[in-house]
Amino acid sequence: MSYRISVVGLGYVGLIHAVGFANLGYRVLGYDVDRVKVEKLRRGSPTIYEPGLEEYLTRALSSGALEFTDNIEDAVLGSDVTFITVGTPSLPDGSVDLSQVASAARGVGRALRLKRGWHLVVVKSTVPPGTTEGLVAGILEEESGMKAFKDFGVASNPEFLREGSALRDFFKPDRVVLGVRDERSRDTLLKLYEPIEAPKIVTTPKVAELAKYASNLFLAVRVSLANEVGVVCKALGVDCYEVLGIVGLDHRIGGHYLRAGLGFGGSCLPKDVRAFIRLAESLGVQARIARAALEVNEEQPRRAVELLEKHMGSLKGRRIGVLGLAFKPGTDDVRESRALDVIRLLLEKGAEVYANDPKALDNARRLLGDKVKLVENPQELVDAVEAVIIATEWSEYENLDYRGKIVVDGRRVEGARRTAKVYEGLCW
Ligand code: UDX
After folding, report:
1. Which among 26, 60, 275, 305 is placed 20 to 30 Å from 217, CA to CA?
2. 266 lines ligand 1 (CB under 6 A)
3. Cα distance between residue 246 and residue 255, in whole Å
4. Domain 215-425 is in which class?
5. Active-site residue identified among 233, 240, 268, 427
6. What is the reported pLDDT for 2?
7. β-strands 120-123, 153-156 pairing
8. Is the minimum distance from the CB of 221 to ligand 1 under 6 angstroms?
9. Is 222 in the pocket of ligand 1 (CB under 6 A)?
């Protein structure tokens, strides 16, 4: 049987999965509450920048495999499996805001009342352990009048997509994690993921949910550890990339997530570390290493600005450029970007801030308004300022002419070292 899939919530994760499953040959219905978004996607215009997305989206739409709707009933009734892929942002205390998950479950549950036959609801959003079997299954039962894990299935299936390579990660994941409680849900998900070649780990929903947090915590800790080593290296006058290069060759350690610099941003790592800390606290455990990872991460943008002051003195009224606004190259996403922290600190010091990004200018404009002068051409930005801080390692910044400028490099862009008047690596 070829399953029909619905995807509830067309943000980053939802859209990639809708397009991905459609390209695997499934019929997919993508649903979002935002009508403007649905309309845009129907026209084949991606709502985010992600390499390859436009081509895959166009292909799926023209083959008829993918359709978009703003009616959740149509989405659920027209499918056998529903993925919940809504956002789970941080609340001010760092815990997880599950309101979108709850309202998605409510919508799906109401539609299930009208459904004939078995249906599977899969939670893909990153949620604290226990949410799938507790909150989500509870709401679905309440709204549908049916019994979870019997009349319909509920499962957890976390995603591990990296922005910038999300489609590749969808088609070629390191592992597929299936948190299930009943056989039918397990068999359905195993069948659904059959076209994807990867180890399939079948476990409980709670283990699956926690594995996602633990993975992101691990990555965040590695980056902060690299940064801590980096700061010590800088104090000793040695190159931390050389040191960490040697460290990473140990197969027990591996070379990934050891790039020292401004630290980790984005929609997942910071938020998931905060959520892990809250989760641990709620269980009476002190998450010391997770806390330390956040502390080190917060310090890096401050260090960059201090290095600038070392060379320039007061920044008041001085023209400073920030190269890169996206939280990493290959995306237009500025959520929790380290560049935004750098900019905030520069503005606090009274600097006149100029910024560039190859993809994220529109998203940055929405957040920064007219506080910062956004410049489309990176060379024009460099020419217009006294000093620059490199916040994202876009390849576009490698071959700029930095002559006569002070450069504080937060991301190891070698080209800047070659031409800058003063070059200062953040921790090398
Ligand atoms: C991350 C996880 O990798 C992914 O599995 C999960 O599903 C979502 O969160 P993403 O947010 O796209 O993905 O970014 P990632 O590539 O992991 O990078 C996160 C941040 O860490 C970026 O700001 C990046 O610049 C920074 N980073 C990464 C470093 O500073 N050094 C490194 O060595 C690696």
Report:
1. 305
2. yes
3. 9
4. alpha beta
5. 268
6. 86
7. parallel
8. no
9. no
